[in-house]
Amino acid sequence: MSILMTLDFWVEFIVAAIGTIAFSVLFFVPRKFYILNGVCGGLGWGVYLLFCSNGRSSVEASFVASLAVIFASRYLAVVERCPATLFMIPGIFPLIPGISIYWTAYHVVSDNLAMAQETGFLAFKIVCVIVLAIIFIFEIPQSVFAKMAKGLRKT
User: Fold this and answer.
1) pLDDT in tens, 70-93
2) Alpha-carbon distance 97 to 120, whole Å?
3) 122 near 107, Cβ under 8 Å?
């Protein structure tokens, strides 16, 4: 059975969207962008789940999911005529390696330095691929997104 057909996938997608909306509220994103932010966050988490279910590592999945979120953020920024960071920062939230950072701190406190090093390095790799995804997508000229959104742009 495909991952898209499972209830777990859709539940996680919805929870990621709700978490992204909550993060948008926390950071005072204008109310009219809440749903679009939720879609960005859900999209990123959905792509992450799809790649992880196909045997990819969490680093690879985070990279591709970050590309999807940043691309959608830039596209929505052109359509809605607002800064891309309104969509990018909340949208990337579900992909931040919080649990790896937590386990790194836990293993340091527990004096299990080998595991601390392993989980810390994993968190570092995930953060690096998120930054690389941001750099890659922001190297695409604005005119490309403007042409893509030409028919959908609000006047």
Assistant:
1) 999 999 999 999 999 999 999 999
2) 10
3) no
* Distance, CA of 74 to CA of 86 (rounded, Å): 10
Question: Are residues 19 and 37 in contact, defined by beta-carbon separation less than 8 angstroms?
Answer: no
Q: Report the C-alpha gap between 16 and 86 in whole angstroms.
A: 17
- pLDDT, tens digit, for every residue of 21-70? 999 999 999 999 999 999 999 999 999 999 998 889 999 999 999 999 99
d(CA 21, CA 10): 16
Confidence of residue 139 (pLDDT cuts 50, 70, 90): very high
- According to DSSP H, which parts of the chain are helical? 7-26, 34-53, 58-80, 85-92, 98-109, 113-138, 142-148
C-beta of residue 72 within 8 angstroms of C-beta of residue 43: yes
Are 20 and 41 in contact by the 8 Å Cβ rule? The answer is yes
Q: What are the angstrom distances between the C-alpha of 39 and each of 42, 65, 73, 118, 141?
A: 5, 13, 10, 32, 23
Q: What is the mean pLDDT of residues 113-136?
A: 96
Best CA proximity match to 85, nearest among 139, 12, 11, 30: 30
Whether residue 104 contacts residue 123, with contact meaning beta carbons closer than 8 Å, is answered with yes
